[in-house]
Design a protein that fits this description.
With 134 residues, the protein is α+β, with helices and mostly antiparallel strands. It is 34% helix and 34% strand. The chain has 3 helices and 7 strands; from the N terminus they run βααββββαββ. It has helices at 19-40, 44-48, 99-116; strands at 2-7, 51-58, 61-68, 75-83, 86-93, 119-121, 127-129. It has a 7-stranded antiparallel sheet, with helices on one face. Strand 6 and strand 7 form a beta hairpin. The N and C termini lie far apart (35 Å).
Amino acid sequence: MKSATIQLIDASIQQTITIEEVKNLFKIYQEKNRKTGEQLSWTYDRYTFPYDTQDQINEGKPWIYLHGKEDGYHIIAIGVETNAGQSKIRIVLSAQSTHGDRNKAVEYCKMLGEQLKGEVHLFNDRVMYFYPRK
């Protein structure tokens, strides 16, 4: 099992986030890609978000599970942890996750990091900074 995180820091747009807000960011992402697909006369959104979402409670906390609906995609889990007034979004790949899942998870990490101006810690331990640095 591997995980990546999007940490919300003082320079981020917000310091805390709920799982519902994360779901709304994914809905905005899907809508944007649906509109792009309309302009291209192509089902672009089907390929940018090839998952069905399912809400589950895991260890007493809500998680979003993305279940692949296309070949090459299996599962991604997304949860939110809040500690000392700052939140961290965790994106987890299971042992059953595919290379397609990993690529999509990295894409989603970047999207969330950019939207929230956060600090993204990727699966390969690299860090991306989307907030203004001094």
